[in-house]
Automatic annotation (TrEMBL), chain A:
It holds the Pfam family AzlD. Keywords: Membrane, Transmembrane, Transmembrane helix. The lineage of its organism: Archaea, Methanobacteriati, Methanobacteriota, Stenosarchaea group, Halobacteria. This is AzlD domain-containing protein. The keyword Transmembrane applies. It comes from Natribaculum luteum. The chain crosses the membrane at residues 6-31, 43-62, 82-107. InterPro entries: Brnchd-chn_aa_trnsp_AzlD.
UniProtKB/TrEMBL annotation, chain B:
It comes from the Archaea. Pfam families: AzlC. GO terms for cellular component: plasma membrane. This is AzlC family ABC transporter permease. Its main location: membrane. It is found in: Cell membrane. PANTHER family: INNER MEMBRANE PROTEIN YGAZ (PTHR34979). Keywords: Cell membrane, Membrane, Transmembrane, Transmembrane helix, Transport. InterPro entries: Brnchd-chn_aa_trnsp_permease. Belongs to the AzlC family. It comes from Natribaculum luteum.
Length: 115, 232
């Protein structure tokens, strides 16, 4: 549960919604005046999804700590690697979520069922 | 309803199979972040961009600063500039008002499917109707599935760690989106910096959310640098 005020959440929704719409409209509207994104901008934009998504995923697969060995021994990291392999192989969101969740549950609950 | 609109709606079915679980996860996350039903629906209807919505509720749940939540949500959607520029030549025959409506539905999937369909000249589709067939179907199912996820959210036991589905969704989008070595460099650099920065947030009280922006910026610079080095 966040400590955000109701109005702050509405402000977030409104500002991002309007900005997103203007991004979508940009060249569709301007076409005829500017019909090319500058190559430099295209080059930067090409890396936005990979960089942002990797930054979102990485800290959720390990608990950040200066001890690398401690970080690597983590059920979430193992389940994440399995899911990444499935995503690469199948490229399907549904299958990736299912396999990743099952892998996590197997690692978390599996040992208690066996021993 | 014409044939072209129906063709778009039909072609959206495959996409929706992947988007419904994503929408459910967003609904559950929105509930977890303390959003109201109407706020959750407003996000899906207004922002209509899954990754940005999920990032936004994640940062709200983590109590990141207002400015950081807004900036991050917008940065994630900047890629749509490319879609807008790429699809614009197909819409020049339409008036301003039609173009303003079409722009609203420009998501990753609508863009990719429409561009592929427009390239099939033999089918001579009505561009606007095919595009709207895709966009309207995806919009309706997206908003509805969000509400279902929101309602289900409260009933799911904590021990199932369902929130782990969020990084899984991001992984499912990230991995197939990587097409070349410079993008691998960008992703790896960003991941390493993100872990270090998340540690700094926990240990030294760096504002939550700033870690994401720092990591993404380093990743983008690393990717651009790799691209330039490899081009030589």
């Amino acid at each position: 549960m966040s400590e955000y005020a109701v109005l702050e959440i509405w402000a977030v929704i409104l500002v991002i919604a309007v900005a997103t719409y203007l991004i979508r409209l940009s060249f569709i509207h301007l076409f005829g005046r500017i019909n090319q994104v500058p190559p430099r901008v295209t080059l930067v934009l090409k890396f936005v999804p990979a960089a942002v998504l990797a930054a979102l995923v990485a800290p959720q697969l390990v608990t950040p700590s200066p001890d690398v060995a401690e970080m690597v021994v983590d059920e979430r990291l193992a389940a994440g690697i399995v899911a990444a392999a499935v995503a690469w192989w199948r490229g399907d969101i549904l299958v990736t979520i299912l396999v990743g969740m099952v892998a996590l549950w197997a690692l978390q609950f599996g040992p208690t069922l066996v021993f | 309803m014409t044939e072209d609109f129906k063709a778009g709606a039909r072609d959206s079915i495959g996409i929706l199979l992947g988007l419904v679980p994503f929408a459910l996860v967003f609904g559950i996350a929105a509930d977890g972040a303390g959003l109201s039903t109407i706020q959750t629906v407003a996000m899906s209807a207004g922002i209509f961009a899954g990754t940005a919505q999920l990032v936004t509720v994640e940062l709200i749940a983590a109590n990141a600063g207002l400015a950081i939540v807004i900036v991050t949500g917008i940065v994630v959607n900047l890629r749509m500039l490319m879609y807008s520029a790429s699809i614009a030549p197909h819409f020049t025959e339409y008036g301003q008002r039609t173009r303003a409506v079409l722009a609203y539905f420009l998501t990753d999937h609508v863009y990719a499917m429409s561009i592929a369909e427009y390239a099939e000249e033999a089918r001579s589709r009505n561009k606007r109707l095919y595009y709207l067939g895709l966009g309207v179907s995806i919009w309706l199912v997206w908003v509805a599935a969000t509400v279902v996820g929101y309602v289900l959210g409260a009933g799911i036991p904590e021990s199932l760690n369902l929130m782990f589905a969020i990084p899984l969704v991001f992984l499912a989008i990230l991995v197939p989106a990587i097409e070349d070595a410079p993008q691998v460099v960008a992703a790896l650099a960003s991941a390493v910096v993100a872990i270090a920065a998340a540690y700094a947030v926990a240990e030294f009280g760096l504002p939550r959310g700033l870690d994401l922006l720092i990591a993404a910026a380093v990743g983008i610079v690393a990717g651009v640098t790799a691209e330039e080095v490899m081009a030589r």
